[in-house]
């Protein structure tokens, strides 16, 4: 194989100091050794022919070279497989994992099943370089010797095709560092193959296997004359043969009487996949109803995590199976191995001796063997729910959950669901319909469940959720209130979920704290952590939002595309552009199209507005008018970012034309954004106070409607209208809006409305001449996670107070916030255009502060920086006049 280099970039046979090679061994060094060998490599030439085989080996060499550079490996020898040295064990594992994948891809192109075996060990080795003369005569450039080398060779020799074996020394070092190779490290599958004896090695060695779900063989290594499993003498073949006859007679009965329960290494917060309920009774009512009941019961555990139906369907799709495929032992095991799930749980309901029996098998997906078998039975179908309760409680304790924890969360199913099997079946079918975006059918099924059992709290909660998703707040509130009345009939986890939704719809200021309770009690709960992250993002608490998302950034979680997109947006807002792009790429790989808008913002933050605009314009229609029109917010902002005011106005005009005079929340938002554009384009006269007063009044009227699902956004936008008036020097609209919201603001504390209200209150103080109070009102936001516009308002207040050095600091901060200006949430991004333009105008703010401090040269430089982005021809007249007031006329003309 040609072209393979060592880790310093030298070809084999060439040292870094040619002519000065050292033959004396260095002192022993602790290194990671990786030995790899392609299985049946000698047959490749016979199968492919000389030319094709040579091409394959050249491609193999390129793979090895690329992985050496990626994982910092040094190729030592390739005479009998590949021998590489690494500084860190995790780099050796990363190389091995990628090598197996790369080899598989090379083979697929030729319809070959190419596999390799690998052995990884950590130990002391001696290294020395051979002289140039010795290398010319055929010696290797670098020699490596030591007991670690044959140890790695023994591991490789007993590995099966596709198997990576680790020594007991290497395993803990690698295991501790798996996070260093990213998300794939968290999903690796590990298995101990027990103790082995190697020829020439006195001590017994424990061997471990590691690999990626779906690829790792997880089979016992191959014994050889040089490597055998370490078993007691009585278990060796000769002894076993002598003992077998004696033991057989008593073993058959004794084993069944005394066998210990099999075990599985299940830890707190590990995951299980629940297979489809096998219904052997012939009663079709039990198919979906008991499976749903079983899932509800098991999901109350804070010890066991249950893979969601949505994730199971996603896995089936990636397995190229129909989403309706029955999840049995084999399918469940494959899903478990793919998703890093610890166990498969297979429930069955049957009739035995006239009684209804509920039984459960727990299967180890690595071996396919049953490790737990539990059952409970009762008289008739009415006993089914109680039997499920008993089986699930036993299952939880067998998996290692404390009995006290089981008793504390195991509410009886008839009490927390319904005793009506038909109602439970309708609810289960409704859950499936809702998960598959068949909202109308879900509503019909939930209503049927309530008709059969009017006190079915879970069905009322489900109807509240689906009506909220359809923006039908009035109907959602009816069922929310009924669910609250029946709260005692909900499982513990769902009570927390209901409390959070109650706050979301009626007490928005408490929503974040309620979601935090759910997330703290059930840390792997997707609704809990995702809603915590969403609220924290809206409050510009980006680091906290990322932390919550990390808790659900797991391969077992559904909606990984949504989570990755949210993480990318938070990273973008922080200005961590490279990390944000990686998250957007990950989101697109899982859910194509989900991150297109955020990709455009990323491009804009990289000063690539043309590419950003092309990406937005090429976005496919989603068939929902309101969702399709959101793109015009971005198109207008991208145009304004370049000072193309008419193009921005045209984008808004297209959106308003499509809305055709509607008074929808989106229509009101576009009117407000057009007013902001006019103010930025034309100065103080761009948006008359009367126009802004009318816009604020419409937002307040919408806010006052009891069935309004957008009350927080409407209050925020009313405050934005007041803020726009303040930027033009008018305090009337601000006074009216603050008075109208006065009684509601306490309930809105903890939302973005609180932040915007502080900005408006500060503006009122500044316009009344109290710059000190204006500054004090904004200090909490400027020091913490405030709005971009809070910093703009702070510059105005500091400038009014004559504190020009501090004002300059605010202007400098704004200049660096273009990524955040695009990404900030601020009530459906009504402030996006204003934010982005203000990051450009911050150069003029800095110029004013510098000029006021006597630094005319610095002020002129700031104006020049804005000219680099906006040519003079794009400057509105009021900005030209403003610049002339900043600099002396002669110098201003020179600069412009």
UniProtKB/TrEMBL annotation:
It comes from the Bacteria. InterPro entries: A/G_cyclase, Mod_pep_cyc, Nucleotide_cyclase, TPR-like_helical_dom_sf, TPR_rpt. Residues 1-25 are annotated as: Disordered. TPR repeats lie at residues 423-456. It holds the Pfam family TPR_11. GO terms for molecular function: adenylate cyclase activity. Residues 1-13 have a biased composition (Basic and acidic residues). Keywords: TPR repeat. This is Putative peptide modification system cyclase.
